Amino acid sequence: MFRTEPPKVSAIQTAVILLLAMLAPGLVLLLGQTPASNAVAWSEHWISAGAEPVTETTHLYLPLVMRAYRPPPPPPVYPNDPYYGSQWGLTRVRAPEAWALSTGQGVLIAVLDTGTDYTHPDLSGKVRTDIDRDFVNNDDDAMDDNGHGTHVSGIAAAATNNSRGVAGMGWDASILPVKVMDSNGSGNSSLLATGIYYAADHGARVINMSLGGLYSCPSDLQTAVDYAYSRGVLLVAAAGNNGANRTVFPANCAHVLGVAATGYYDTLASFSVTGTHVSVAAPGEDIYSTLRYGGYGDMDGTSMATPFVAGLAALVYARFPTYTPDQAASAILDNAQDLGSTGWDIYYGCGRIDAFRALWDGAQGDYPVCLGARVWSATGAGEQGSGGAGEPGGGGAEGQRSRGAEEQRGRGAEEQRSGGAEEFIPGEVVVTLRAGARAEALFRAQGLETAGSLLYRARSGIQVWRLRVPVGQEEAVLARLRADPAVIAADRNYRISAQ
To answer: Fewer CB within 10 A of the terminal residue: the chain, N end or C end?
Structure first.
């Protein structure tokens, strides 16, 4: 046998090969066996004498695959819902680009509100009527008798791409209505805490609270939030609507994302409350969604901004099913479009949500990076009312202004206003007891009325009670209750209203 010379390679070919080697050192395009050297190499070519020539095999090794290479994202997905063109907020947060990556399939969003009109054609197939709950009327029918909850539900997860009505941020996510506010859009912290336990016990991965009260986070409410958080639930709440720099619960509770509202040009809505409880912002002006009785219409409020974040959370969990609430919060907050001052601020929090980036880049850490040492809603743990009633803070319940128009753009959204009412209900306290606690004996020892006061017993055994006490003696009773080892939390019963 004799050996031939390697094939000739021009200077230009050599330069191209070396350039590729420098640009993409991590990848090798392999034709044949890998040589001992990792350099560009030619094999030896052998031809057997006295026989037919053997087809020569050339081994060419090019570092063509880049270590950091990532394929481009898929093209945006646009729904065929006829009113999608009126939903400017979905375009602003880049929902079509996000929907190409996730549609929220299999994720349950609990909407703690005035209920949901589950007969609405754009909601009927999305609502879990088998497990809905009405804590206002103490029954299993969470039909909306106000309109606020129906509008919020449509923003979060209306039936999408069904050639009808509007699109929902959560696309394929489903809705669990939990009624905690009455026909006037009013409620209290005892029902809200109960609703949180119920939602966590019934499979919700996201809890939307487009409502608020005027104090720092009540201790019993923080306990309920902690219960849901420990079970992998991400909670989001409205930042409030009176335009002042004040604190509003539950947005100021630890592990709750407080949501501010922005307008069409990414400026802060005039009504949006500012403060340390603001975590992030989302569209909240002229938001088109579902109304009661099959209608559609515009509403304003941080209530409308909140379900954008809840819907996005559903997309995040569907794409990253192993994420913790902290990681889901990081994906949403750390990929937001920074507005206002660089980094977190009291107006926009970490910025206006960017749904595509949240799904494309995912969590930036095990906790939201942009909040630094803050606990999600950006209020220090000591400010979040975990030890007592807290201080009055304000936050107002100015409601939403429905801009109904012709035909199906209905006018079903009544304004909800606090009207200067007291922030708590005189003569009522809320008590959370440990599993196995002998509630009746404990309360009798305190001389407290217990008839009809058990609101909910969680699957863990935790009990939530609402008790009547003499007006003016609330703090004295609470002090005695908090000293009992069977009591996890005890606080006043604070008023809440739709935001």
So the answer is: N
Chain-wide mean pLDDT for the chain? 84
Number of residues written out for the chain: 499
**How far is Cα 339 from Cα 144, in angstroms, rounded to an integer?**
35
- From the list 81, 102, 113, 174, the catalytic residue is 113
Is 140 a catalytic site residue?
no
Active site residue 151: no
- Strand-pairing partners, residue 433, are 463, 487
CA 468 remoteness from chain centre? 35
- Active-site residue, 148 included: yes
Structure-block tokens of residue 31: 């034709």
Of the listed ranges 151-160, 412-421, 480-489, the one predicted with least confidence: 412-421
pTM reported for the whole predicted model: 0.82
Q: Residue 202 in contact with residue 195, Cβ under 8 Å?
A: no
Q: What is the mean pLDDT of residues 212-219?
A: 94
User: What are the beta bridge partners of residue 337?
Assistant: 352
Look at residue 36 and tell me whether its pLDDT is greater than 70: no
Is residue 385 helix, strand or coil? coil
Contact between residue 276 and residue 379 where contact means Cβ atoms under 8 Å apart = yes
The residue from 120, 148, 255, 277 that is catalytic is 148
Query: Tens of pLDDT along 321-340?
Result: 999 999 999 999 999 999 99
Residue tagged active-site, from 190, 303, 386, 453? 303
Identify which of 361, 306, 374 has the alpha carbon closest to the alpha carbon of residue 334.
Answer: 361
What letter would DSSP give residue 60? -
- The Cα–Cα gap between 239 and 437 comes to 35
The letter for the amino acid at 225 is V
The class (CATH top level) of 84-383 is alpha beta
Dihedral angle, C-alpha 357, 326, 378, 335, nearest 10 °:
-10
Give the residue extent of every domain in the chain.
1-69, 84-383, 424-498
Q: Residue 452 contacts by C-beta under 8 Å, 6 or more apart in sequence? A: none
Cα–Cα distance, 472 to 141 (Å, whole number): 36
First CA to last CA distance, the chain: 89
pLDDT tens-place string over residues 87-108 = 999 999 999 999 999 999 999 9
